[in-house]
Design a protein that fits this description.
51% of the residues lie in helices and 22% in strands. By secondary structure, the protein is α+β, with helices and mostly antiparallel strands.
């Protein structure tokens, strides 16, 4: 036989042996025979087929073949003896083939050990599945893709009351129609039982004609990705449904009673809310009146203080300034006279010159001539600064101006800064970033009070030493003033309350909690608003925004 033929036989999936019917000797065997049975090929061709097929049935068969009675076999189970003495279960087929006018017997055999294991496993699985179906608390029905019942447990047939004659007849269509006929929603039930290849999972409540209620859940049954049927699970929820209905009825009655009581409470609450709103209105008006009174008293006090300070300081400053001016002229005349005397020192006697030189040395006349002018100039400069401070006090309080007027907020900010400078100079460096604001119509003294409150708060927020930045700007409609500090910042839960009257985060005795509230009221009456940005540990920014054109009726005099 050619090598290609040998190669083909050796790659066959079945054991193949060619037997001489006369001697029953194995003429040829493929490689799978040697691998499966364990006999070397040289040993195999020296053996007879009965050395391998040793059962009594096989011996009789091969005896008939030896006597010329050829009979073909298809798919017969048998046992093959392996080289190690183990018996191998096989399925064999026998064919009669002709070769060169001689008959030969071709034996085809397949090892079925694995198939037996698979069959045993399958049988065990089916047994477990049957036991599971019978032990579950639900009625189980399995229908294949053709609409035939492939399985049902006893609980299913019991809960539906399927007659024994239908079960014995195995009339699947009649059983399914019997089930649908017992349900009030018969069309729905019938449609579900017929939809065996639907991929959707379903859940339905079925009310039976006898008053019971079943819950039905169905799932598609797959082999691989192909739907081969559907599994239905039925639960009797009659008692649970009745309990739910009773509970629902009780809950409805309770809800009716609750609604009635709620109406009564809502009416009572509406009355209380009306009284509460009235009280809140009265309280708010009282707080506003109180705040306005405090503001008026504070501004009046500041005005009186500024007026008194200005009056008391202006009088002595006036005559001191006048006297220093006169003293400066006198000193200049005396120095001119001294220069004239020095011009005739050469005509004096030696004794006179020495006496004058001794006095000049004693009083350091040259230094006096140089320093006396500087002293008088510095004194006059100091008096000018005192006059500026007095003017800043007057500008801050505007004691001489009680009407609304055009004012420059940057000038007011500067005068306010000078007034509170003692609160700031040891705590912060002041940075000014002015935007050259246009004048607006306002009550300057009131806005100066806002700036003072914000500046003092900024200084108090800085614990050691920091920076306070004064920033201004404007656009077509608004002007704004920003006061930014590098203090400890404000907590987020406090930001919404900082403008409430009497709310303060300062220690007891450090603040009344009215500063920002009064500032908010002043800015609001100017038709403006205050914006706040703050971050703990980094500082805060307060921006006062005011309209450039204030309506005449918008602000009333404080």
């Amino acid at each position: 036989m050619s090598s290609l033929a040998d190669l083909m036989l050796d790659h066959s999936s079945q054991m193949m042996m060619l037997v001489d019917p006369g001697s029953l000797r194995i003429v040829m065997a493929n490689q799978l025979v040697t691998q499966t049975l364990g006999y070397p090929r040289v040993e195999l061709v020296a053996m007879t087929i009965t050395d391998i097929e040793s059962s009594l049935q096989d011996v009789f068969f091969w005896e008939d073949v030896h006597n010329g009675q050829f009979q073909e076999i298809e798919g017969q189970e048998g046992l093959y003896r392996c080289a190690d003495g183990e018996m191998l279960s096989v399925v064999k087929s026998v064919r009669v083939v002709a070769h060169e006018n001689h008959a030969l017997i071709l034996v085809l055999a397949r090892d079925i050990r694995h198939e037996r294991k698979v069959e045993d496993t399958l049988e065990q699985t089916l047994s477990q599945l049957r036991a599971t179906l019978e032990s579950t608390g639900n009625g189980i029905l399995v229908i294949d893709w053709q609409g035939n019942i492939t399985n049902m447990n006893r609980l299913f047939s019991s809960m539906w009351g399927i007659p024994d004659e239908l079960l014995l007849e195995r009339n699947d269509a009649a059983i399914l129609e019997f089930i649908a006929g017992r349900v009030n929603e018969c069309d729905l039930c019938r449609a579900r039982l017929r939809a065996t290849v639907d991929s959707a999972e379903t859940e339905d409540l079925l009310r039976l004609t006898d008053g019971r209620v079943f819950e039905c859940k169905s799932h598609p049954q797959y082999i691989g990705e192909r739907i081969v049927g559907r599994v239905f699970g039925y639960s009797d929820i009659t008692e649970r449904t009745r309990a739910d209905e009773a509970l629902r009825e009780s809950r409805d009655r309770l809800e009716d009673r609750v609604r009635e009581r709620t109406v009564e409470l809502e009416q009572a609450n509406a009355t209380l809310q009306g009284e509460k709103r009235h009280q809140q209105t009265l309280i708010r008006k009282l707080e506003e009146a109180h705040n306005q009174l405090l503001q008026s008293e504070k501004m009046a006090s500041i005005g009186q203080l500024a007026a008194g300070v200005a009056h008391e300081i202006n009088n002595p400053v006036g005559f001191v300034n006048s006297n220093l001016g006169t003293l400066q002229r006198y000193a200049e005349n005396l120095l001119r006279l001294l220069s004239a005397y020095e011009g005739i020192e050469g005509s004096l006697t030696t004794e006179q010159s020495e006496a004058i030189a001794c006095v000049k040395k004693e009083i350091d006349a040259a230094y006096l001539r140089e320093d006396i002018g500087d002293l008088l100039t510095e004194s006059l400069d100091g008096l000018q600064r005192v006059k500026r401070i007095v003017q800043d006090l007057k500008d801050f309080s505007h004691v001489d101006k009680a009407e609304r007027e055009l004012a420059n907020l940057e000038a007011g900010l500067e005068s306010t800064l000078n007034v509170v400078w003692n609160e700031i100079k040891y705590k912060a460096d002041v940075v000014k970033e002015y935007g050259n604001l246009p004048t607006i119509e306002c009550f300057p003294s009131q806005l100066n009070q806002v700036f003072m409150n914000l500046l003092v708060n900024a200084a108090h927020a800085i614990e050691d030493h920091g920076h306070i930045t004064l920033r201004t700007g404007y656009d077509e409609n608004f002007v704004w003033v920003e006061i930014e500090d590098t203090g400890r910042g404000i907590r987020q839960d406090h930001l919404s309350r900082i403008f409430e009257p009497f709310f303060t985060t300062k220690a007891v005795g450090k603040g009344t909690g009215l500063g920002l509230s009064l500032s908010y009221g002043i800015v609001s009456r100017h038709h403006g608003y205050i914006e706040v940005k703050s971050e703990l540990g980094k500082g805060s920014v307060f921006r006062v925004v005011l309209p450039r054109n204030l309506p005449v009726e918008a602000v009333t005099s404080e």
